[in-house]
Specification:
about 15% strand; globular; about 650 residues; Beta Polymerase, domain 2; alpha+beta; 5 domains
């Protein structure tokens, strides 16, 4: 067999060793023959001077994930060196139509232009993502192979120049790791995140790695003692389980540091243990034993078995004060849940039709299909895919009792847009459990949400002010941006960027950046120029995070043209004791300031007339406030003066 030209340093030593490893567990002889033939094709074209990822390494990684034989064969045949030598029709003749089509599909994904931060980054990446989504809904195995190609690219990224390292790493975290997360492939996601983090934030990466090395022996001793004690307790209760310590990934530690605004050594929950049991009943038995012996942190408890994550992930998470009062995170799951958490779609072909794992994967693919079919702009598409630091869900109720599943930290306005775009566009307020709340109110599981609308009301520019957090989901942001762009389509962008609707600009002239062409409603950043102007970029533009001249970067936010709006309202009522108090109470509840009040009472008919000068936030709806005024007993008219 001609394979002497291959001189890389993989995890396998020879053709025969790799052939045995890939063929293990495959019973169909034709599949074995096709696998051997594909291997020979790839070995024949290996070149030590060609540094592109080899499909030999791709197939080796995929086999460890437990994929089906056809995926292995297609992965081998999609080697970039074969792409230039083998005709697709020849592949059909030598193998079969389905395998050849899958290999060609992977080649189509692999030939898309790689990240280039010197050009407009967003449209390129959005198009790459749309390709991946299209491939997912057609045959998810093509995307799985593409993800492993990217993983292998990252493993060899040390051979590249710094600019390429940064671009590939950024693209990985923008597109590939979120997609791996959606498909539930934890093993690939975690390694890609850590490798990309190494090149995006090398100083932070090394600082965390070094910090984790300090006191490593002490941490291992604590974990080993905890695991031994737990194993003994489980054995006494006749629970067959596997308990072991697990390493926390550097990128996840960095995210937690940012979220909690702490240094690595200040984080209390760096110790982690996983418990694998036989069935769901035992999951809760183990939980009871753990909580019965050690004090737990209620805020760190999550039951993802009862409340499965969107990507099908199931497990029980808790955190306890273990030996030496160290906080230890404990994850409890079944063997099937562990397999799904690590491999996700990679093992999809082994799930029984109709099983929980099969249904979860179908739900995930359906959600990705929705992203592809619902037309949203490029920024929103990329934002919609990305997981947030808080990946949990909240479950709220509509007035009719229907359950709505939203990301944690979703607001009342997010809810409105989730129900329907038009409800969001005409939203004037919200009630939670019957009480009026701000549109920025973060929803909690179990709450009943009612959206108040008015056909004359429209989206506000400062709904996209990220400091005020009116919306947190990509769907709501995209719909608001879409309406604003249509509304302001005849307005010059620079006319809207001023001291009135953006903070931090001073009196400088504002110019739009030619590299990324920011539009109304985009998340934006300002960069000072040497000529004293300010150039406005999209926040996602690579040029927005640095200045060629070392000048400051401005974090800009959208807002209305004035911070406050003043209105004089006219009220007519029949006088009674406590009338004025009821009116002021309503205004206080609505967070409306009363700047001036004039009251006249006609003793002849006991009527009263009031003129109130009010100061409102731009998003407050005056029409709704006036309607509520007229519900106050004895008030029969409330309108603008």
């Amino acid at each position: 067999m001609k394979h002497s030209s291959f001189t890389g340093k993989p995890e396998y030593a020879s053709f025969d060793e790799l052939d045995r490893f890939l063929s293990e567990g495959i019973e169909n002889q034709q599949s074995k023959d096709h696998l051997n033939k594909a291997l020979q094709f790839v070995y024949d074209v290996q070149d030590e001077n060609d540094h592109r990822p080899s499909s030999l390494d791709i197939a080796y990684t995929l086999k460890k994930l437990g994929v089906d034989p056809q995926t292995l064969i297609a992965a081998l045949l999609s080697d970039p060196r074969l792409r230039e030598k083998l005709d697709p029709l020849y592949l059909e003749e030598q193998f079969d139509e389905r395998t050849a089509k899958l290999a060609n599909h992977v080649n189509w994904l692999n030939t898309f232009k790689e990240a280039d931060l010197s050009v407009d980054y967003i449209p390129e990446q959005a198009e790459a993502l749309r390709r991946l989504l299209l491939a997912t809904v057609n045959d998810v195995r093509a995307v799985l192979i593409r993800l492993v190609f990217r993983l292998q690219r990252l493993r060899k990224l040390y051979e590249e120049d710094p600019a390429t390292q940064y671009a590939v790493a950024k693209e990985t975290l923008d597109i590939f790791t979120p997609l791996a997360n959606r498909l539930g492939i934890g093993e690939i996601k975690w390694e890609m995140e850590d490798l990309a983090f190494r090149y995006l934030e090398p100083d932070q990466y090394m600082a965390i790695a070094n910090s984790m090395d300090v006191n490593r022996a002490k941490r291992e001793t604590i974990i080993n003692n905890f695991v031994n004690q737990l194993q003994g307790l489980l054995a006494k209760n006749n629970i067959k389980a596997q308990a072991y310590g697990r390493a926390k990934h550097l990128y996840s530690i960095w995210k937690k540091m940012r979220r909690k605004n702490q240094e690595c050594h200040e984080l209390a929950d760096l110790l982690a243990v996983r418990v694998i049991v036989e069935d769901i009943t035992q999951c809760y038995q183990v939980l009871g034993i753990v909580h019965g012996l050690w004090k737990h942190l209620p805020q760190e408890f999550d039951d993802y078995i009862a409340n499965t994550k969107d990507n099908g992930y199931q497990s029980i998470h808790t955190a306890i004060f273990g030996p030496e009062q160290q906080i230890i995170e404990v994850q409890i799951r079944t063997k099937d849940m562990q397999e799904f958490a690590e491999h996700g779609v990679a093992a999809h072909w082994r799930y029984k039709e109709g099983s929980n794992q099969d249904q979860a994967m179908e739900k995930t693919i359906e959600a990705l299909r929705d992203m592809l079919e619902n037309p949203i702009d490029d920024d929103a598409l990329l934002e919609e895919l990305k997981p947030t630091f808080f990946n949990d869900r909240v479950y709220v109720l509509t007035p009719k009792g229907n359950v709505i599943d939203l990301p944690q930290r979703a607001t009342a306005l997010d809810f409105a847009y989730f129900v329907h775009t038009e409800i969001g566009n005409h939203c004037i307020g919200a009630k939670v459990n019957g009480q009026r709340v701000p549109l920025s109110y973060p929803l909690k599981s179990g709450e009943r949400v009612e959206i108040l609308t008015d056909p004359d009301s429209t989206p506000k520019l400062n709904w996209l002010n990220h400091n005020k957090r009116y919306v947190t989901t990509g769907r709501a942001s995209a719909n608001i941006r879409s309406w604003l762009k249509n509304h302001y389509k005849d307005t010059e962008f620079t006319q809207l960027i001023s001291n009135d609707n953006l903070t931090g600009l001073g009196n400088r002239e504002v110019l739009t950046a030619p590299c990324c062409h920011p539009q109304i409603g985009d998340r934006i950043t300002g960069v000072y120029q040497l000529d004293s102007t300010i150039q406005v970029h999209r926040a996602t533009c690579p040029n927005a995070s640095k200045s060629e001249h070392g000048l400051p970067i401005l974090e800009l936010e959208w807002g209305e043209r004035t911070d406050k709006i003043r209105h004089t309202i006219h009220i007519e009522a029949f006088d009674r004791q406590g009338l004025l108090q009821d009116i002021t109470t309503l205004l206080n509840q609505s967070q409306v300031n009363v700047l001036k009040a004039n009251t006249e009472t006609d003793n002849a008919d006991q009527s009263v007339t009031m003129e109130l000068l009010l100061e409102l936030e731009p998003e407050d709806d005056l029409k709704y406030l006036l309607k509520r005024m007229e519900y106050i007993p004895n008030v029969f008219k409330a309108n603008l003066a």
